[in-house]
Design brief:
The protein is α/β, with parallel strands linked by helices and 488 residues long. Helix content is 38%, strand content 22%. The strands form 7 sheets. It has a 7-stranded mixed beta sheet, sandwiched between helices. The structure holds NADP nicotinamide-adenine-dinucleotide phosphate. It holds the Pfam family Aldedh.
Length: 488
């Protein structure tokens, strides 16, 4: 066997080796094999990344917005040119199907950079007369921002965080998940190729300790975090030590509400997309599927039929595969444990519920698409985020009832409704305690649309022009036009 490739940290426009020699293994979830090693960002690397970010900020923040925009648009062009190569990296690191990664992950990451590059030159202050005097405001960058990412959309998450940060003149030190380190490092390479100055986007590799170092560091002005609620709380508590600004993109247990008058096939497509896309590892998934009583039997029959017939599980690089492997053996076990809890608490397992060993990938971390019925709101599987392909179907009778039950959770990331009644659609969505909502749609998240959570699902937004405010601070400047009126 040839020796494993060892990747290094990306600091100041190049890969640099650490001093300790400490590395960690990255496993391909579809094969269970170690794919490569990555050097951990030790203290020397961390210090040099910080020094590099400071010098990067001195250059990048002084460019005109149009100049920054032009460079970022070049990065967009390169990302699109390298789409297939980058998508393959994402497939091998995450276990998700090529069918998805080749049309979503890089594309939506590039879209976000393009969107914010377009907005950069429109960032402006205002001025107001105060008698003969006046004041004006400047929207200034925050400085060095930290991005900390989850493993489900590694490159896309890095793009969504870097795009508004860099467009506003900030620099970013990004720490990807230890399970998926390559997406962010490839983005860093693309930025360098595009002409982004050294130090503007550094990538540090390692586990939560590297994330914690960033979160606690006094020279970091802001942390944008994507991950679990529990980790988010730790990050926010640590950020409080130096009163950093935070953006928190956390987990969900979102409701998908389907009324009797809905187009059933369309609603089933949404339920399947919202539970089985990326093998269920999506934060906005509609894992509590509320179906109105009259259509319930037909809905269930077609849902099971389509799930059993249309899901193709196997080698994620096979273009036919539409259902991949879970990120790790431990995560696979966690999801299987939830399935056991569902059964033991009395839910009926309609289909799935087991690990799978597809012929072309027998050692991967696959789980069959799983559907539970006869569920109630108190069951663990209806309350906790599973982050795997496990759908919980619940029934309801009235609007009032479903709104109350849908909102009965501490989480509030997303919500969806299917109905032909346009008034009811808006009425329901306006009552949802959730930041990302869909009517007769599920999961679409264009760069123009702000996304983020209510309640414990998050703080702040990503994408959409809203986000510019989160990466700039206002300086107000008062200008006196006459001698001061002073008693001294
Ligand atoms: P996680 O375990 O919370 O980890 C997220 C990131 O935080 C990883 O890079 C992790 O490093 C790092 N980390 C761990 N401990 C830390 C600490 N004390 N300080 C700073 N950083 C620390 O989440 P995950 O398992 O990777 O991702 C799944 C979760 O992400 C789900 O809950 C999902 O809903 C959520 N998510 C939310 C969104 C959204 O937009 N709302 C999008 C995608 C995913 P290591 O893993 O390398 O140790």
């Amino acid at each position: 066997m040839p020796p494993l490739v060892v990747y290094q940290n990306y600091v100041h426009g190049q890969y640099v080796s650490n001093s300790t020699g400490e590395t960690f293994e990255v496993i391909n979830p579809a094969t269970g094999q170690v794919s490569y090693l990555v050097e951990t960002a030790d203290a020397d690397i961390q210090q040099s990344a910080m020094a590099s970010a400071k010098s990067g900020f001195a250059i990048w923040s002084k460019l005109t917005p149009i100049e920054r925009s032009r460079i970022l648009l070049k990065a967009v062009e390169l990302l699109r040119e390298q789409n297939d190569e980058l998508a393959e990296v994402e497939v091998l690191d995450t276990g998700k199907p090529w069918q998805e990664a080749s049309v979503v992950d890089v594309v939506t990451g590039a879209d976000s950079i393009e969107f914010f590059a377009g907005l950069a030159p429109s960032i402006e202050g205002n001025q107001q007369p105060i008698g003969d005097d006046f004041y004006y405001t400047r929207r200034e960058p925050l400085g060095i921002c930290a991005g900390i990412g989850a493993w489900n959309y590694p490159l896309q998450i890095a793009c969504w965080k870097a795009a508004p940060a860099l467009a506003c003149g900030n620099v970013m030190i990004f720490k990807p998940s230890e399970e998926t380190p390559r997406g962010a490092m490839r983005l860093a390479e693309v930025f360098t190729q595009a002409g982004v100055p050294d130090g503007v986007f550094n990538v540090l590799q390692g586990d939560g300790r590297v994330g914690a170092w960033l979160t606690e560091h006094e020279d970091i002005a802001k942390v944008s975090f994507t991950g679990e609620v529990g980790t988010g709380k730790k990050v926010m508590a640590a950020a409080a030590g130096s009163l950093k600004d935070v953006t928190m993109e956390l987990g969900g247990k979102s409701p998908l509400i389907i009324f009797n008058d809905a187009d059933i096939e369309n609603a089933i497509s949404a339920a399947m997309l919202g539970n089985f896309y990326t093998q269920g590892e999506i934060c906005t998934n509609g894992t509590r599927v509320f179906v109105q009583k009259d259509i319930y039997p037909r809905f269930i029959e077609r849902l099971v039929e389509r799930t059993e017939q249309n899901i193709i599980c196997g080698n994620p690089m096979n273009p036919e595969t539409n259902f991949g492997a879970l990120i790790s053996k431990s995560h696979q076990q966690k999801v299987l444990d939830y399935i056991e809890i569902g059964k033991s608490e009395g839910a009926t397992l309609l289909t799935g519920g087991t690990a799978l060993q597809p012929e072309n990938c027998p050692n991967g971390y696959f789980i069959a698409p799983t559907i539970f019925t006869d569920c109630n709101d108190e069951m663990t599987i209806a309350k906790e985020e599973i982050f795997g392909p496990v759908m919980t179907v619940l029934t309801f009778e009235s609007e009032e009832e479903v709104v109350r039950r849908a909102n009965n959770t501490q989480l509030g990331l997303a919500a969806g409704v299917f109905t032909q009644d346009i008034s009811r659609a808006h009425r329901i969505i306006h009552q949802m305690q959730a930041g990302i909502c869909w009517i007769n749609a599920y999961g679409a998240s264009p760069a123009e649309m702000p996304v983020g959570g209510y309640k414990m699902s998050g703080i702040g937004r990503e994408n959409g022009s809203e986000t510019l405010k989160a990466y700039t601070q206002i300086k107000a400047v008062y200008v006196g036009m006459q001698p001061l009126d002073s008693p001294f």
